[in-house]
Amino acid sequence: MSFTYLKKLPSPSEIKESYPLPKELAELKARRDAMISDVITGKDSRFLVIIGPCSADNEDAVLDYVSRLSPIAEKVKDQLILIPRVYTNKPRTTGEGYKGIASQPDPEKKPDMLAGLIAMRKMHIHAIEESGLTCADEMLYPENWGYVEDLLSYVAIGARSVEDQQHRLTVSGFDVASGMKNPTSGDFTVMLNSVYAAQHPHHFVYAGHEVKTTGNPLTHVVLRGAVSKHGNCVQNYHYEDIMRLIEKYAQMELENPAAIIDANHSNSNKQYAEQVRIVKEVMHNRKISPEIHKMVKGVMVESYIEPGSQKVGEHIYGKSITDPCLGWNETEQLIYEIAERNASAQ
Description:
about 40% helix, globular, 8-stranded parallel beta sheet, about 350 residues
């Protein structure tokens, strides 16, 4: 056989029973979900900042990071809602490399899926406990959703997953804000078709069950830049890009038009320091254009304690082992500037 079945994994309900979310944290999540929903639907003028490491590879450093975000979140709460990135699954273009704590709890050891599922759930619970902030993660594997569905306040669907039918249908059953990234080709129509699919009800097979969903009206787009046929990065966060997006949104007649701008990846050509400039341009365009102000609801920023990135095994505390990230000092300054610019754009 092509498959070797190594072990049967516990069901989501079994993992949840062993590692439950305390009632008070469930109540906190419900409040946070409602606030984020109000931003997406236009009821709340605050701005979303989805920020944190490219990959959540080390629980101690991640908890240190989110604990630093907590007092800042309190200071800017009238203008911003901070959503920590705790990304436990990492897409790999060629299939090679570190795939995230959910697959490989120790980046220097072999994959261990059971330990990974437990580490993923524990990290998200501990992050909420540590910071009072519920987090974002990328849904790389739809079948993993059940293990964290009670923990996340934001879900991202990546550029390589956004065309996949199972991802689209699974998001249609979510009740939290879910961002569909543009594909690596940059095609807005593909991205908007994905939003359309996720906003509507479906009947399909999921996790060994026949299921039906009601549709997720909080599904929206995430612009992360693209790669041309010549391999060059093509940005899509500029004024003209957002105006084109607004036009295409109107043609699709989708619910709750909204966009999040990913300041890294192809928008920055993975030049992590450029994220600061990119975010400032986004905030400027929101200030000068009522249409863009209404459409752009937040930004994504890759940030950690130490700037840049390292190779697996270098053991530099709080430094990314995947894409390079902003360091803490730049991060703190940027958050305060976003808050100030959002206030001035009201």
